Fold this protein.
Amino acid sequence: MLSKLVSKQIINHGLRLTTRAASASAQPKLVIDRKPPVKFQKLFINNEFVDASSGSTFEVINPATGDVITEVADASEKDVDRAVKAAKDAFRLGSEWRRMDPAARGQLLYKLADLMERDRAYLAALETLNNGKPFKDSYNVDIPHCISVLRYYAGWPDKMNGKVLPVAGDFFSYTRREPVGVVGQIIPWNFPMILLCWKIGPSVATGCTTVIKLDEHTPLTGLYTAKLIEEAGFPPGVVNIISGDGPHCGASLVKHPDVHKISFTGSTQVGKLIGIEAAKLVKRTTLELGGKSPNIVFADCDLDTAVEMSHFALFFNQGQCCCAGSRTYVEEKIYDEFVQRSIERTKRRKVGDPFDESTEQGPQISHEQMDKIIDLIESGKKNGAKLLVGGKREGDKGFFVQPTLFADVEDDHRIAREEIFGPVMQILKFKTVEEVIERANDSDYGLAASVFSKDLDKSIVVSNGLRAGSVWVNTYDNFDPVAPFGGFKQSGLGREKSEYSLDSYSETKCVTIKISQRNS
Ligand code: NAI
Ligand code: MG
């Protein structure tokens, strides 16, 4: 019943996150464990679970209640060093990993995906417990997407060809795509499992070894995945997974001289710091940062679809999406009706226990994030935007925020410029195509954008004019593994997913051989 209900909802949203995952019918009957046991709390280094060298731990909080779930190992600089050494050893020339056939690397990813499929219900429950996202999303969106992403990358290792080059003279010259080496990967808390898989996939496919630092709010599913990596048969040191904070643990991974590439997903503020540090040692860097994505609704759209998808574009995942459609520009002719329908939809949004079947919106990740959102809501009111729904904390337990809607938002309001990362929708009015393209592009960010219109010609013109890494037309959040994702401007550097991501995990080597014998 639950999966039927949710599949319907996902199809309605056009959300393609579940593509190529296992068919629902292949799954055993779903039993939801509202209190999944936490089985792994230690650092995963060299295929062993170890305590932090200092012995210290930190608390992991359930955002739906504010209660402590468990404590996990708190990695320090010394532990980062241990993990990097393991990754460096695994990358040594002649090691098991370096000698492994490319297709065998793919088999490891297939195996890991199979194990995630086996443990899908447990992983989804653990993700919901730790992150607060509705179980129906963890189960039907996040974990199936992880499986799809790993299977996508599993097909790549034996298909990354070099080229033979037509060099002048008696030479034979060819290129090889080689792994960049030891990679440091840092992920945030909004999609703990998905982002973990976006990082593991290209790193393993290209033959790199990695140290992944989980977010300090949401380490539980990543530490369980470590166990699956061991079970899948990865050689020791290929994937190391550690939990720790940003300023010490994360920063020491970024600075480590034996790490050749940093891949970071998180705030623009931290992304800039990481970019500066990484540049000191000329490390390769991919940064997937914040956004303030414009969603443009033209009068000739299908209004039902546009209202529902605009709601989804902003509110999905409690509004905690880097690509959230957080500036909804609506053409003047349909503005009033769009606002009215959006009010109705927002009022219907069901907030509550993330394990309940009917819940659409769970808690924000932390007290700090909740306070940031409330502060931005206050600024919206002060700046003169019209608050039409919500605007407050929901209840006094956990970190819930009411689904909130502002209309008559102006371009210079803080809520139209800053990333809110919460369930707060901004509706702005526009008149012409030229005007809306210019206003949509007037942002330091450039992660995603969308257009709602039945006029395909106009949609293409607008899509081409938008300065954003992903543009969705009459849909939102299409995250097929084959599609690249990343930002223009201060939304980042490089691309995640897709074959484009593989470039940033590989170096091009050119080998040139002198040919001494000639027969022509
Ligand atoms: P953050 O950028 O501080 O944290 C993300 C990751 O970076 C975490 O693993 C953290 O431990 C690590 N980190 C923090 N400081 C670091 C440093 N100096 N060196 C190395 N690693 C470091 O994000 P935070 O504080 O959790 O959220 C702040 C805002 O960032 C949010 O309100 C939201 O606007 C944005 N954000 C964007 C995300 C995205 O998907 N692009 C994800 C999470 C947050
Ligand atoms: Mg931070």
The longest strand covers residues 171-179. The pocket of magnesium ion (ligand 2) is lined by residues 246, 267, 270 (CB under 6 Å). Residues 1-24 have pLDDT under 50 and may be disordered.
